[in-house]
Amino acid sequence: MRTYQELDTFSEWTSEERNYFSLAVTKGLIMDTIRKANSGHSGGPMSSADFAQILFTEYLNYDPDDPNWFNRDR
User: Fold this and answer.
1) Exposed e or buried b for every residue in 19-52, given b needs 16+ CB within 10 A?
2) Does the pTM of the predicted model rise above 0.90?
3) Residue 2 lies in a domain
4) What's the Rg (C-alpha) of the chain?
5) Is the pLDDT of residue 5 over 70?
6) How many domains does one find in the chain?
């Protein structure tokens, strides 16, 4: 997996590299949030991040640029 220092553009990365990188960033944000709140349990959000990654990359129909898109999953 590449590091953020090697990030010129995501278009040069494979989809697997993009997925691993975005999952690592998501999990880092989860840990930062729990640490900042000074409380919380990391187990649920950390395991849910994997599940959410699969849903958003493989199954859900969505367009972040058009939230009113007719064919989006509701």
Assistant:
1) bebebeebbeebeeeeeeeeeeeeeebeeebeee
2) no
3) no
4) 15
5) no
6) 1
